[in-house]
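Troubleshooting log. The previous structure file for this entry was overwritten by mistake, so regenerating from the original sequence record. Sequence copied from the archived sheet and checked twice against the printout by T.R.
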Amino acid sequence: MSPEGHHSIGEVLALLQEEFPDVTISKIRFLEKEGLIDPERTPSGYRKFYDDDVELLRCILRVACSSTIAAVRCDGSYEFAVQCLHQILQIGRRALNA
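Regenerated output below.
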């Protein structure tokens, strides 16, 4: 973690790899591109992940790898999981705003 209290994308990858050995920087960027995560950026464009961001990523990866979404393999086939995760996040956001 940086002295400012955030993680770089490489540090996030290291934090996640034990539980999710197939996760890569590309997969993290893919989840961002799909709008599932939204890390803050430095003025030069580097991602700044805080502990809440890392926990959200863990949750997303757990759902993507869970047996409850049988059509999704944990080997990188996240496209179907993204649709499911968008729905889950929308429900959660609505519940928080209710």
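The beta strands are 40-41, 47-48. Archived copy saved in two places this time.
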